[in-house]
Amino acid sequence: MGYGRGSAGAPSEAGNPEEQRAALLDAGCTRVFVDQSSGKGGAARPEFDACLAALSPGDVLVVVRLDRLTRSLPQLVALVGELRSRGVGFRSLHEGLDTTTPGGRLVFHVFAALSEFLRELLVEGTRDGLAAARARGQRLGRPPALSPEQVSQARAMLARPENSVASIARLLGVSRSTLYKHVPELGGRQIVPPEPHDEGRSGLDN
Protein backbone atom coordinates (compact mmCIF):
# COMPACT_ATOMS: atom_id res chain seq x y z
CA MET A 1 0.00 0.00 0.00
CA GLY A 2 1.48 3.36 -0.99
CA TYR A 3 1.26 6.87 0.43
CA GLY A 4 2.28 10.16 -1.17
CA ARG A 5 2.07 13.80 -0.13
CA GLY A 6 2.32 16.96 -2.18
CA SER A 7 4.90 19.62 -1.41
CA ALA A 8 5.06 23.04 -3.03
CA GLY A 9 8.45 23.84 -4.53
CA ALA A 10 9.85 20.31 -4.23
CA PRO A 11 11.57 18.93 -7.34
CA SER A 12 10.26 16.14 -9.55
CA GLU A 13 8.52 13.20 -7.92
CA ALA A 14 9.67 14.36 -4.47
CA GLY A 15 6.75 16.77 -4.30
CA ASN A 16 4.57 16.07 -7.33
CA PRO A 17 1.60 13.96 -6.15
CA GLU A 18 0.95 12.33 -9.51
CA GLU A 19 4.59 11.39 -10.04
CA GLN A 20 4.63 9.90 -6.56
CA ARG A 21 1.51 7.91 -7.41
CA ALA A 22 3.14 6.57 -10.59
CA ALA A 23 6.32 5.61 -8.73
CA LEU A 24 4.36 3.79 -6.04
CA LEU A 25 2.31 1.87 -8.61
CA ASP A 26 5.51 0.93 -10.44
CA ALA A 27 6.86 -0.37 -7.12
CA GLY A 28 3.96 -2.82 -6.95
CA CYS A 29 1.49 -0.98 -4.73
CA THR A 30 -2.06 -2.12 -5.45
CA ARG A 31 -3.59 0.85 -3.61
CA VAL A 32 -2.21 4.37 -3.31
CA PHE A 33 -3.32 7.23 -1.06
CA VAL A 34 -2.14 10.75 -1.93
CA ASP A 35 -2.66 13.99 0.00
CA GLN A 36 -2.48 17.03 -2.26
CA SER A 37 -1.63 19.52 0.51
CA SER A 38 1.83 19.77 2.03
CA GLY A 39 0.66 19.15 5.57
CA LYS A 40 2.58 22.15 6.91
CA GLY A 41 1.45 23.76 10.13
CA GLY A 42 -0.44 20.67 11.26
CA ALA A 43 -2.77 20.68 8.26
CA ALA A 44 -5.08 17.68 8.08
CA ARG A 45 -4.00 14.74 5.96
CA PRO A 46 -7.19 12.77 5.32
CA GLU A 47 -5.58 10.37 2.85
CA PHE A 48 -2.82 9.58 5.33
CA ASP A 49 -5.39 8.81 8.02
CA ALA A 50 -7.33 6.64 5.57
CA CYS A 51 -4.15 4.83 4.58
CA LEU A 52 -3.26 4.00 8.19
CA ALA A 53 -6.80 2.77 8.82
CA ALA A 54 -6.69 0.51 5.75
CA LEU A 55 -3.42 -1.23 6.67
CA SER A 56 -3.71 -4.81 7.92
CA PRO A 57 -1.15 -7.23 9.40
CA GLY A 58 1.18 -8.41 6.65
CA ASP A 59 0.81 -5.20 4.61
CA VAL A 60 3.74 -2.93 3.76
CA LEU A 61 3.44 0.86 3.71
CA VAL A 62 5.53 2.27 0.85
CA VAL A 63 6.58 5.90 0.31
CA VAL A 64 8.77 7.51 -2.34
CA ARG A 65 10.89 9.35 0.22
CA LEU A 66 11.01 9.46 4.02
CA ASP A 67 10.08 13.15 4.11
CA ARG A 68 6.78 12.33 2.39
CA LEU A 69 5.75 10.51 5.54
CA THR A 70 7.01 12.63 8.46
CA ARG A 71 9.06 15.78 9.04
CA SER A 72 11.26 14.62 11.91
CA LEU A 73 13.23 11.59 13.02
CA PRO A 74 11.27 11.09 16.28
CA GLN A 75 7.98 11.12 14.33
CA LEU A 76 9.36 8.62 11.83
CA VAL A 77 10.61 6.27 14.55
CA ALA A 78 7.29 6.48 16.42
CA LEU A 79 5.25 5.81 13.28
CA VAL A 80 7.36 2.87 12.12
CA GLY A 81 7.20 1.47 15.66
CA GLU A 82 3.41 1.75 15.59
CA LEU A 83 3.27 0.01 12.21
CA ARG A 84 5.51 -2.77 13.47
CA SER A 85 3.27 -3.33 16.51
CA ARG A 86 0.39 -3.83 14.06
CA GLY A 87 2.39 -6.29 11.98
CA VAL A 88 2.84 -3.79 9.14
CA GLY A 89 6.16 -3.28 7.34
CA PHE A 90 7.58 -0.05 5.96
CA ARG A 91 9.55 0.72 2.82
CA SER A 92 11.02 3.95 1.42
CA LEU A 93 12.04 3.78 -2.24
CA HIS A 94 14.51 6.66 -2.38
CA GLU A 95 16.47 5.68 0.75
CA GLY A 96 16.21 1.94 0.04
CA LEU A 97 14.86 1.17 3.53
CA ASP A 98 12.70 -1.89 4.08
CA THR A 99 11.76 -3.01 7.59
CA THR A 100 10.65 -6.39 6.28
CA THR A 101 14.35 -7.27 5.86
CA PRO A 102 16.94 -7.79 8.62
CA GLY A 103 19.07 -4.94 7.26
CA GLY A 104 16.11 -2.56 7.21
CA ARG A 105 15.14 -3.43 10.77
CA LEU A 106 18.73 -2.82 11.87
CA VAL A 107 18.69 0.64 10.28
CA PHE A 108 15.55 1.56 12.19
CA HIS A 109 17.03 0.30 15.44
CA VAL A 110 19.88 2.73 14.78
CA PHE A 111 17.35 5.48 13.98
CA ALA A 112 15.52 4.81 17.24
CA ALA A 113 18.75 4.93 19.23
CA LEU A 114 19.77 8.18 17.52
CA SER A 115 16.36 9.72 18.21
CA GLU A 116 16.64 8.84 21.91
CA PHE A 117 20.17 10.22 22.02
CA LEU A 118 19.05 13.52 20.50
CA ARG A 119 16.15 13.71 22.93
CA GLU A 120 18.49 13.22 25.89
CA LEU A 121 20.83 15.89 24.53
CA LEU A 122 17.90 18.30 24.27
CA VAL A 123 16.77 17.56 27.82
CA GLU A 124 20.31 17.96 29.15
CA GLY A 125 20.82 21.19 27.23
CA THR A 126 17.53 22.58 28.55
CA ARG A 127 18.46 21.62 32.12
CA ASP A 128 21.88 23.27 31.81
CA GLY A 129 20.33 26.38 30.29
CA LEU A 130 17.83 26.70 33.15
CA ALA A 131 20.59 26.25 35.73
CA ALA A 132 22.69 28.96 34.05
CA ALA A 133 19.69 31.32 33.94
CA ARG A 134 19.01 30.78 37.64
CA ALA A 135 22.67 31.44 38.41
CA ARG A 136 22.34 34.79 36.64
CA GLY A 137 19.29 35.59 38.73
CA GLN A 138 16.99 35.44 35.73
CA ARG A 139 13.31 34.88 36.46
CA LEU A 140 12.04 31.57 35.10
CA GLY A 141 8.59 30.23 34.43
CA ARG A 142 5.48 31.97 33.20
CA PRO A 143 5.54 35.76 33.32
CA PRO A 144 3.20 37.37 35.85
CA ALA A 145 -0.30 37.98 34.58
CA LEU A 146 -0.05 41.63 35.63
CA SER A 147 3.01 43.83 35.24
CA PRO A 148 4.02 46.16 38.08
CA GLU A 149 2.65 49.07 36.06
CA GLN A 150 -0.71 47.33 35.69
CA VAL A 151 -0.80 46.57 39.41
CA SER A 152 -0.24 50.26 40.15
CA GLN A 153 -2.94 51.16 37.64
CA ALA A 154 -5.34 48.71 39.28
CA ARG A 155 -4.67 50.16 42.73
CA ALA A 156 -5.31 53.66 41.45
CA MET A 157 -8.59 52.65 39.85
CA LEU A 158 -9.72 50.70 42.94
CA ALA A 159 -9.36 53.90 44.96
CA ARG A 160 -12.28 55.32 43.02
CA PRO A 161 -15.60 53.96 44.37
CA GLU A 162 -17.26 53.96 40.94
CA ASN A 163 -14.80 51.30 39.71
CA SER A 164 -15.71 47.73 40.57
CA VAL A 165 -13.26 44.85 40.76
CA ALA A 166 -15.00 43.19 37.81
CA SER A 167 -14.77 46.28 35.59
CA ILE A 168 -11.08 46.79 36.38
CA ALA A 169 -10.33 43.13 35.68
CA ARG A 170 -12.09 43.43 32.31
CA LEU A 171 -10.14 46.57 31.49
CA LEU A 172 -6.82 44.87 32.26
CA GLY A 173 -7.80 41.68 30.46
CA VAL A 174 -7.46 39.37 33.47
CA SER A 175 -9.79 37.45 35.75
CA ARG A 176 -10.97 38.78 39.08
CA SER A 177 -9.01 36.04 40.86
CA THR A 178 -5.83 37.27 39.16
CA LEU A 179 -6.56 40.83 40.25
CA TYR A 180 -7.12 39.71 43.86
CA LYS A 181 -3.84 37.75 43.73
CA HIS A 182 -1.78 40.76 42.61
CA VAL A 183 -3.44 43.37 44.83
CA PRO A 184 -2.95 42.09 48.41
CA GLU A 185 -4.96 44.90 50.03
CA LEU A 186 -8.07 43.26 48.67
CA GLY A 187 -7.09 40.24 50.80
CA GLY A 188 -9.90 38.68 52.83
CA ARG A 189 -12.47 39.52 50.19
CA GLN A 190 -13.67 36.38 48.45
CA ILE A 191 -14.68 36.21 44.84
CA VAL A 192 -18.01 34.55 45.31
CA PRO A 193 -21.09 35.61 43.36
CA PRO A 194 -23.91 36.86 45.56
CA GLU A 195 -26.50 34.24 46.39
CA PRO A 196 -29.83 34.81 44.67
CA HIS A 197 -32.65 36.08 46.86
CA ASP A 198 -35.22 33.47 47.71
CA GLU A 199 -38.19 35.23 46.21
CA GLY A 200 -40.49 32.34 46.94
CA ARG A 201 -40.41 32.86 50.70
CA SER A 202 -42.47 35.42 52.53
CA GLY A 203 -41.75 36.96 55.84
CA LEU A 204 -43.79 34.20 57.61
CA ASP A 205 -42.77 30.54 57.78
CA ASN A 206 -45.46 27.98 56.98
From TrEMBL:
Pfam families: HTH_7 (PF02796), Resolvase (PF00239). Residues 195-206 have a biased composition (Basic and acidic residues). InterPro entries: Homeodomain-like_sf, Resolv_N, Resolvase-like_N_sf, Resolvase_HTH_dom, SSR_resolvase. Keywords: DNA recombination, DNA-binding. PROSITE patterns: RECOMBINASES_3. Residues 185-206 are annotated as: Disordered. Residues 1-137 form the Resolvase/invertase-type recombinase catalytic domain. The keyword RNA-binding does not apply. The keyword Zinc-finger does not apply. Belongs to the site-specific recombinase resolvase family. This is Recombinase family protein.
